[in-house]
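thread from #wetlab-drylab

HS: before we spend reagent money on co-crystallization trials with protoporphyrin IX containing FE, can we at least see a predicted complex? here's what I'd submit
DV: go for it
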Amino acid sequence: MQSKKMRWTASMFWSSIGKKLLMALTGFCLCGFLITHLFGNLLLYSGKETFNAYSERLNSLGLISRFIELGLLFFAVIHVIIGAILFFQNLKARPVQYIVNKRAGGRTIGSATMPYTGFLLLTFVIFHLINFHFTDKTYATIYQIVSSTFTKPGYVTIYIAAIFITAIHIRHGFWSAFQTIGANHPKYMPVIRVISILFSIILGIGFGSIPIYMSLTG
Ligand code: HEM
């Protein structure tokens, strides 16, 4: 009985809709992280004391902080693995590769490029973690690390490009996730579309303004 239930759960998650559901749920969690991350990063505008105090407060949470980080890593790994599986399954399902990539059937640039923007985003997150998370913080505060990074035009360019890609990915992902969880009623879809656009614009401007501001004032 128990193993039948487990087999049912496994096959449910392994089905096409199960995988999409996992993408949607993990995507929502990652969006939740991005909102809190944006609020935290906006404290850079209040100066070094406030930002360093915020960072120290987070680190002082100790085990709770590590637990949240592990949860975030877990969601990100599931999102990336399932996304890659869906990408390769879609490739295989196409009997003939398109010679001309037509934007047919309501496909937008955002939806057609999801796997590619997703891959670029993953590359950026690894680069970003090496920059700010896994860096030696013995001789510099986190504010100094961030502000010295954004004195370099190359880094400012990379961050702005990555944030632009994040906004494109989220614009479609957020909308698509709502569809997956069943919120695809004609009455709600226009509202969800507007919310997705606004959400990606807020994230884009919020994160994107930081490297520009820091490079001008740092
Ligand atoms: C201007 C934009 C951004 C700034 C200034 C910034 C800054 C930071 C800082 C200071 C940390 C913490 C380092 C530490 O104390 O260990 C961090 C961690 C992190 N950032 Fe960003 N970030 C930015 C944009 C982004 C974006 C767009 C993403 C994702 C797409 C992202 C994902 C992460 C992740 C996953 C972590 C690790 C979480 C953790 O330390 O618990 N960041 N970021």
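DV: The first helix runs from residue 2 to 14.
HS: ok that's useful, forwarding to the group
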